[in-house]
Amino acid sequence: MSSLEGKVALVTGGNSGIGLATARAFHANGARVVLSGRDRETLNEISRQLGQRVLAVPTDVTKLDEIDRLMARAYETFGKLDILFVNAGIFKGASLEEVDEAAFDEMLNVNLKGAYFTVQKALPFLNEPASIIFNGSVNALTGIVDSSLYTANKGAIHALSRALAAELIGRGIRVNTITIGPTATRLLTRSGSSQALLDAQDRARINHSPLKRLGLPEEVARVALFLASDDSSFVVGSEIAADGGWLLNTI
Ligand SMILES: NC(=O)c1ccc[n+]([C@@H]2O[C@H](COP(=O)([O-])OP(=O)(O)OC[C@H]3O[C@@H](n4cnc5c(N)ncnc54)[C@H](OP(=O)(O)O)[C@@H]3O)[C@@H](O)[C@H]2O)c1
């Protein structure tokens, strides 16, 4: 795997789960890393752990002025951006009837509006060449009950990624998506569901998976590392699955 020595990587949602594992992997491979997320305590703790070559900027991706500040701080500190991991996201399982306007707006604001404007506002600072990696989901490519809102969000991310791959490659910016399968993070536990429901859902996910387990954030991070590095220099507009075979029809 190529080193990320000399590169600057920005990870939204870099203080938890897949974003954190990826920020650690980028950093371990020599990158200077900009971490963002809302929770200041975890951001500070992770910066302390990583030590050198790190900038943590508390940012709510639903607030465009905060994204502006994030990009400005990253540029002031490190002078450029080579890698953008568009990762911050939320999930709440609910049937079609259960989703109200507030829940719709909340999820769309983080998962789509936040992702869209993160890329738009990073653009002036992105180097040539650069790599943008979106966090997609198996939800975007299949039908899973009680997840219509999340599925619509992630479907939009996959579509956005393809459109931007075409639009930005002329500027030397490669855009790709990781199609992530069920991974052991706080995403689902933060959703507000009861522990009993979460356990039942985990059992169903594990049962469906050909590997019979959830993914680890580090397993997704290794795919992000590939897409971030020059090893993927010919990979543009792709959707690479890190899903343990979730999308296979194993019957
Ligand atoms: N885990 C899975 O099974 C799975 C499967 C497919 C796709 N994904 C995608 O992977 C991404 C990361 O999720 P994860 O599983 O690692 O979950 P996680 O551990 O809950 O991490 C989510 C991250 O997003 C950040 N975030 C949430 N709302 C934000 C906001 N308004 N502004 C800025 N940051 C915000 C969180 O930080 P703060 O709370 O500090 O803001 C946190 O760092 C998401 O896009 C998710 O949809 C996950």
Short characterization:
It contains seven helices and seven strands. By secondary structure, the chain is of the alpha/beta class. Strand 1, helix 1 and strand 2 form a beta-alpha-beta unit.
Helical amount: 40-55%
Name of the CATH class: Alpha Beta
Distinct small-molecule ligands in the complex: NADP nicotinamide-adenine-dinucleotide phosphate
Radius of gyration: 17 Å
**Count of discrete alpha- or pi-helical segments spanning 4 or more residues:** 7
Task: Give a count of the beta strands, DSSP E runs of length 2 or more.
Answer: 7
The total tally of domains equals 1
Q: How would you characterize the largest beta sheet? A: 7 strands, parallel
Binned strand content: 15-25%
Indicate the topology:
Layout: E1 8-11, H1 17-28, E2 32-37, H2 40-50, E3 54-58, H3 64-78, E4 81-86, H4 101-122, E5 126-137, H5 148-168, E6 173-180, H6 195-208, H7 217-228, E7 239-242
Parallel strand pairs: 1-2, 1-4, 2-3, 4-5, 5-6, 6-7
Helix pairs in contact: 1-7, 3-4, 4-5
Characterise the protein shown here.
The protein is α/β, with parallel strands linked by helices. It has one domain (8-186, 216-242): NAD(P)-binding Rossmann-like Domain (Rossmann fold, 3-Layer(aba) Sandwich). It has helices spanning 17-28, 40-50, 64-78, 101-122, 148-168, 195-208, 217-228, and strands at 8-11, 32-37, 54-58, 81-86, 126-137, 173-180, 239-242. It has a 7-stranded parallel sheet with strand order 3-2-1-4-5-6-7, with helices on both faces. Strand 1 (8-11), helix 1 and strand 2 (32-37) form a beta-alpha-beta unit. The mean pLDDT is 96. It binds NADP nicotinamide-adenine-dinucleotide phosphate. Residues 12-13, 15-19, 37-39, 59-62, 87-91, 110, 114, 135, 137, 180, 182-183, 185-187, 190 line the site of NADP nicotinamide-adenine-dinucleotide phosphate (NAP).
